[in-house]
Amino acid sequence: MTMKLYMHPVSTASRPVRLFIAQKNIPVEEVSVDLMTGEHYKDEFTAINPSRMVPALVDGDFKLTESAAILRFLASEFKAPEYPTDTRKRAKVDEALDWFNTQFYRDFGYGLLYPQIFPHHKRPTDEHHTGTINWGKDKAQTWFGVLDKNIIGSRQYVTGDQITIADYFGGCICTAGELIGCTFENFPNVQRWLGNVKKLEHWPRINEVMYGFAASMKGKDFVNL
Ligand SMILES: N[C@@H](CCC(=O)N[C@@H](CS)C(=O)NCC(=O)O)C(=O)O
Q: 95 C-alpha vs ligand 1 centroid, how far in Å?
């Protein structure tokens, strides 16, 4: 039986997993879950992920949620060098994955981006809404500064000169910023690193729907970095 990945093409958490699967030619069938019509709230999907979120990987009765866990699993299962087996190198990849997945994603994704683009992230009052976005912007600036100077610095990728699953993951979270027009011009190392990640052969195809969504919002007045 082929493994199935339940996903949505614009979803920030689905994109790195889809990209990795495409790059490594891993035999996985994609199943689209329409978040816009609430398909993830239906019984068929909540039986897979009661948290009602994509992505989710299913292989028979093995179900795995959480994008970073899915990346780690697939890379381990298919013995990909993007998740090194040397314990110290692997620990540095895990460190970067956790860094992106916690404070960075919370403040940049859920603080700055999503409240501006998704209606269900609108806060109950204008004051609350504006406060959330300003807080997210302020914190995200700090995290981007650390990413630019300390994590990437002169490296090609976040843990060195080889691409790892942390670059797939972090690169997809950062580029979600393009939905609100982020160009990262104040963060030259981030720009250079994203340029490296975007050289992946399947980047354009996997991100096509996301860029279509970004184009549909072009010209809107977003709070930006
Ligand atoms: N921590 C989860 C987050 C997954 C997540 O945030 N998924 C979003 C799409 S990017 C989702 O399914 N949202 C459904 C909703 O907002 O109702 C992961 O990394 O997989």
A: 21
